[in-house]
Design brief:
The protein is an alpha+beta fold. The chain has two helices and five strands. β2 and β3 form a beta hairpin. The longest helix is centred in the first third of the chain and has 36 residues. It is rod-shaped. The relative contact order is 0.13.
C-alpha cells in the first residue's frame, strides 16, 4: 500500500506551470513589439506637432513640398511656383533639412 501512494505525483504548483509561460510570452511581446511601436508613434506625433510654416516635408506618397499653410489637421504644400496641394497632417512622412 505504501508503494502505490508514493508513486502518485503531487498536484502542487500546477497553476504556476500553466500561467508562467503566458506571462513570459507577454513580457517578450511587450519588449519586442509593443514598446518599440509606442516609442516610434510618440516620436512621429512629436514631429507632426512641431511642423511649422516654411518646413520642407515629404508626404507618405513621396511628394516633396514646402508648408505654406498649416492648421490642426490640414497642411497646404507648395510644390512649385504655382502649385499648392492640400493634405491631411497625418499624411506627412517626415521633414527634410532646409
Amino acid at each position: 500500500m505504501f508503494e502505490i501512494a508514493a508513486a502518485q505525483p503531487a498536484g502542487g504548483g500546477g497553476i504556476l506551470g500553466l500561467v508562467l509561460p503566458f506571462v513570459l510570452m507577454f513580457v517578450i511581446f511587450y519588449f519586442l513589439l509593443i514598446r518599440p511601436q509606442q516609442k516610434k508613434q510618440k516620436t512621429r506625433n512629436a514631429m507632426l506637432s512641431a511642423l511649422k510654416k516654411g518646413d520642407k516635408v515629404v508626404t507618405i506618397g513621396g511628394l516633396h513640398g514646402t508648408i505654406v499653410e498649416i492648421t490642426d489637421d490640414v497642411v497646404v504644400l507648395k510644390v512649385n511656383d504655382v502649385t499648392k496641394l492640400t493634405f491631411d497632417r497625418s499624411s506627412i512622412s517626415h521633414s527634410t533639412t532646409n
